[in-house]
Specification:
By secondary structure, the protein is an alpha+beta fold. It has four helices and eight strands, in the order βαββββαβαββα. Helix 2 packs parallel to helix 3.
Length: about 140
């Protein structure tokens, strides 16, 4: 497969924002999978209102569920990004991250942002994952 022959696969989530802004929950490009904007929201239900640890745990779970559609797990995560609306929540979100990725030790970026589209959401996460051979699996999916 050449650089120009990139195999893509997309997974949609349950967020109404995906339809509003024209995006998907996750996309695979070659051997990499990118999960964007996982929030502690399923449908219209917010989980862990007011609790940054629980919101982070749920958001990471949603992100990992998107990776599972590609046969990937937390062990395949190479980078995380955490967007917090309050610096005071760093310890709680860090604890959730450590519980899920402590043995994996991905590159991590933590940003404090002014706000998120839903003011009740305290945490939003992104995951990048890699696994050799994933592109070949995607090619066989597209061929079927």
């Amino acid at each position: 497969m050449t650089e120009r022959q990139v195999v893509r696969g997309r997974v949609g989530g349950s967020s109404s924002l995906e339809k509003e802004i024209g995006s998907v929950q996750a996309i695979a490009v070659g051997d990499q999978v990118f999960v964007g904007g996982a929030r502690p929201v399923v449908g219209e239900t917010l989980y862990g209102e007011g609790d940054p640890y629980e919101q982070a745990r749920v958001a990471f779970g949603i992100g990992l569920e998107a990776l599972a559609a590609y046969g990937l797990t937390a062990d395949d995560v190479v980078r995380t990004r955490m967007y917090l609306t309050h610096a005071r929540d760093l310890d709680a979100v860090g604890r959730a991250h450590r519980e899920l990725f402590g043995e994996v030790n991905p590159v991590a970026t933590l940003l404090v942002v002014q706000g998120l589209p839903d003011a009740r959401v305290l945490v939003q996460i992104e995951l990048d994952a890699h696994r050799a051979g994933l592109a070949h699996s995607l090619e066989s999916l597209e061929g079927s």
